[in-house]
Amino acid sequence: MPNPVTPPIPHGTGPGRVLSISRRSLMIGASLLPFGTSAFAATRAMRRVEPIPARFVTLQPSPFADAFAANRRYLLDLDPERLLHNFYISAGLPAPKPVYGGWEAQGIAGHSLGHWLSACALTVANTGDAAVAARLDHALKEMARIQAAHGDGYVGGTTVERDGRTVDGKIVFEELRRGDIRSNGFDLNGGWVPLYTWHKVHAGLIDAHVLARNARAMPILLGMAGYLAGVLEPRSDEQMQRILAAEHGGLNESYADTYALTGDARWLRMAEKIRHKAVLDPLTAGQDRLAGLHANTQIPKVIGLARLYELTGAPAHAAAARFFHQRVTGHHSYVIGGNSEREHFGQPDQLSNRLGEATCEACNSYNMLKLTRHLYGWQPEARWFDFYERVQINHMLAHQRPRDGRFVYFMPLAAGARRTYSSPEDSFWCCVGSGMESHAKHADSIWWQDADTLYLNLFVPSKLDWSERGLAVDLDTAMPLKGDATLTVRRAPRGRQAIAIRLPGWAKDPVVALNGQAIAPVVRGGYAVIDRRWRAGDTVALTLPMTLATEATPDDPTIVAFTYGPLVLAADMGSEAKPFDSTGPALVNDGAIADSLTPAGDNRFTATGALGETLTFRPFYSQWDRRTAVYLPTFTSDRWAAARGEYVRAQAEARTLGRRTVDTLYMGEMQPERDHQLVPGGSEVVNWSGRSARRIKPGQTLGMTLARRPGPAVLRLLIWGRDVDRAIDIALDGAPLATATHKEPAADRFVALDYPIPSAGAQGRPAATITLTAKRGDAVIYEVRMLTAEDAAPVTSV
Questions:
Q1: Which one of 84, 189, 232, 739 has the lowest number of neighbouring Cβ atoms within 10 Å?
Q2: What mean pLDDT do residues 474-489 have?
Q3: Domains in the chain and their CATH numbers?
Q4: Cβ distance 252 to 308 under 8 Å?
Q5: What is the pLDDT of residue 112?
Q6: What's the first-to-final CA gap in the chain, in angstroms?
Q7: What's the rounded Cα separation, in Å, for the pair 578 and 627?
Q8: What is the pLDDT of residues 739-764, one digit of tens each?
């Protein structure tokens, strides 16, 4: 049997058009549409620019190249047979290797495989890497064998708990086929987001087919698409909405892409059927109802709408995608470009009280960059890549530690916080998966094209060898650390060629020089456009002054972050190996707060903190093993004199609470509830003031497990201050503990109710089973926290 892997394509050679799809916003070749060209024509009509295929781009030494290289090493370290462990078992085949740990062993196996397939395909598409291509081919060969064993197109590795046993997750899909649909908010028939995992594998197969050009992928892909379509096509709209209430990733996008590849209208109908109306209808109507929603659940749905717009031209899809992007980037995002706290959106423009240890989930930024590429393709204006650059540098480069290729789930913005990295074989969080993709694609958005113009969007050191236009260009730059770049033409096309260079919004008074002479280029859409007949050896030098600026939280202008050109700065609070037990830094200045920082060379700045300490600010992204402070409170001299005592006291209280906290369950949030084995008991998820909660009606019981330490403890319930004169029976390990009530005057604030727990003994149980039963009135619980008994107060308000 011939090897189905297309030989790697050297840079600057190969067919004139790269066959690719919108998942990477690359061009779809008409030859991929055996059943017609309508989808191809629609896409071309909607997209005005396309990225230069990554195979024409070679990364040069830089932080981006370092991240790509570290990621490649990790891709090759992973064993596809271990990622496929549950897939073999599901098909009744012997598993040759043990399953990985972490999420791979917790019912969601397959999501990492899907991202790994995409990351390998991206790597092959960029460099033609033979080792990665061979590893990818082996995985696809095994997937085909697994699918054949099922005989119906199914290929999956999810599992589900039934009657205390772990069983094959295929049972969930077959129950859906029969119209048996059950969910407690985050699960689907007891399975942990099985459709989300399905999407990742579906998308990975698309990338393996399109980007890596592996002939094995398409038959597996079509088998998967047909199996799930057979489950979902007979479902009524009401049934579909119940199914789609559980996280399902970008299934609508994958089916749209499958339609684009085949021209089969069945897949377009599926893409349109997978519309979660509760979220997408308000966005289509221009309504921001994002507060309290799990952020990354929503972004892929909108990417799917963007893809459907490209295929159908339906203007409502485009309007929803643009509105969502504008609301998230303008009203729900932090200075590094990421969004969410503990995976959830808060109230718009309310960030100052959401600067914790779990800000900015990496998957969110991964998906927002994908959405940005779609919107830029429709409207090639530089402002889209101002956002893209902000995220790529300050979140994505921070998210991966280049010395070992490990990834961060949340990017904490709390003062003194440190980054928590994945382990090689026992994490496999969603952000490990999206991280594998994010750092395989540093070459895919630098250069873009339309019929007349070459666009430079990202200042990533690289070589472009664009055989289609007979143009070869070197991009030399030290960005993001220095604000200059030089383009050198190595090979010139025969005719005229316009080159459009993005003028970043952070650069004031940029200077453009052609062959050493300053020029006044045409400026269009945020680009310096030079249209001429180029010659080998021509140079364009760009000087982009990097200046210090501040960015305040929208709801509190006294809390600020600092930027220097494209870089977000952060105060270095010491080694991550040492606990942070100091007062968070603040600044005092009666003038411009940016004047508080003094340049110290090499993108470093110093300042004197409000308590007289010396602070050193450096680029945030590169402080991989340091504790940092990104946002700092600021005061005038008079305000500081009045506020100092309270500020120090509040900081001390926050440190004490952090020190005493053993475990916290944030209600109504998917991952915390899974981690704490929540038994919902008929409760429902509600939201108030941008926070999720669980409501239990009288007689209903909510169960959970919280970690504890030996010795006396305190159980804390967080409720809303207007929920007075209600009663909740609390049981600890099956024995009554207390009846929780709040009898203080009603107030618009959260209230903490504390209840002592007797000592567990020196070798006490490491976990406590807690049940909450609503006794009088509805009980609405926002969080449950286990504390040590140190300095416990019986009832406190927050």
A1: 739
A2: 97
A3: 22-438 (1.50.10), 447-480+484-543 (2.60.40), 548-635 (no CATH), 660-797 (2.60.120.260)
A4: yes
A5: 98
A6: 69
A7: 9
A8: 999 988 888 889 999 999 988 755 56
